[in-house]
Every structure is written in structure tokens, then in C-alpha cells.
Amino acid sequence: MTIETDNIDRKILSELAMDGRVSAKKLAKKLKMHPNTLLLRMKRLQCKGVVRGFSANIDYEKMGYSLHVCIFMKVPEERPGDAEQLNGLLEMKELEALYATTGDWDLVSLWRVQNKEHLNSLIRKISGSKIVTKILTSLVLYTYTDTFDFNPFNPEDS
Predict the structure, then answer these.
(1) Mutual angle of helices 35-47 and 24-31, in 10-degree steps
(2) For the chain, what are the domain ranges?
(3) Which residues, including other chains, have CB under 8 Å from residue 92's CB and lie 6 or more apart?
(4) CA distance 24 to 22
(5) pLDDT at 154
(6) What angle do CA 158, 10, 57 make, to 5 degrees?
(7) CATH architecture, domain defined by 7-55
(8) How far apart are CA 16 and CA 27, in angstroms?
């Protein structure tokens, strides 16, 4: 369901996407609005589920997770969208994102691992899963844009 927003909401979202830690006072000044009005709008966007939270943009390589991996998976034909069957995968700490997709593969996933040995262990674990019938693994060589770069509300891009 699409939530109705106006230009001011989209400006707020654009600024929060660029810096989720910006103070309300500073953001209100930048957007030329009263801080209370800004806070009310931000609260409404949170209550409607548009703003789901605030998070840090972490450089995982600096934390020892030097390999970023895409793993494509096939699952049994009768259960490709059954989230319950995915519990084993969803509980794995290396999992960054998991998507049910159309096309040749049922699931597309992104993982962070520390090294080749860690990757090998992960592949064996996934391959041994009862729900995964086939996998294809690809290493990410370069990241040109990332989820934190996505900001369709930036008025400068309009």
C-alpha cells in the first residue's frame, strides 16, 4: 500500500536517507520549518511504517568480512514462497538479504563472510539444507552503488 506524502515529506525522507542521525533542530532549519512541525511529520512517517528505523552504514570489510557473496538457490517446486521452510537460512548470521524471485532461481541471497574457508563452510551448510536443491555462488568484485545510496526522494535528482 502506498502512503500519501507531499513534497515536504519527500524532502524529509531525502535528508534522513542521507543522514539518519541529523538533529531535528538542524533538519528543521535546513528545510525552513518549525522543529515541532518536523517532529510531527517524522512521527507520522514512522507510525505509517514509511520510516522503519535508523541504522548505521557499516564497512564490513573493516570488521573482517572481506567477501561479499551472491548465492542463487533452487528450492522444491511446491514450496518456493513458503517462508517457514527458510527458518534455517534466516537464522544464519552471515545472511545480509534473502529474496524470493522469478526467473531461473527461486531465491537470491547476499552474504558476508570473512575468507574463502568461511565461504566454503557456508556453501556446505546451505547445500546441506533440506530445502535447497541447487545453488550457484558469485563473488561481488566491486560495489558501485549500495542500498544506502538509494534515495529516490532527492529533489536535486528530479
Answers:
(1) 110
(2) 7-55, 60-139
(3) 122, 125
(4) 7
(5) 72
(6) 95
(7) Orthogonal Bundle (1.10)
(8) 9
Reading the block at residue 123, the C-alpha cell is 556453501
> Which backbone phi and psi does 70 adopt, to 5 degrees?
-100, 130
Residue ranges of the alpha helices (H) in the chain? 7-18, 24-31, 35-47, 87-90, 116-127
Question: Among 137, 100, 141, 142, which Cα is nearest to 119's?
Answer: 137
Amino acid identity at 27: L
Per-residue pLDDT of the chain (158 residues; tens, 9 = 90+): 788 899 999 999 999 998 999 999 999 999 999 999 999 999 999 999 999 998 888 999 999 999 999 999 998 876 656 667 788 889 999 999 999 899 999 999 999 999 999 999 999 999 988 889 999 999 999 999 988 888 888 766 55
Q: Looking at domain 60-139, which of 3.30.300.10, 3.40.50.720, 3.30.70.920, 3.30.870.10 is its CATH number?
A: 3.30.70.920
Coil/strand/helix, residue 105: coil
Q: Check if the beta carbon of residue 54 is closer than 8 Å to that of residue 90.
A: no
111's grid cell = 552474504
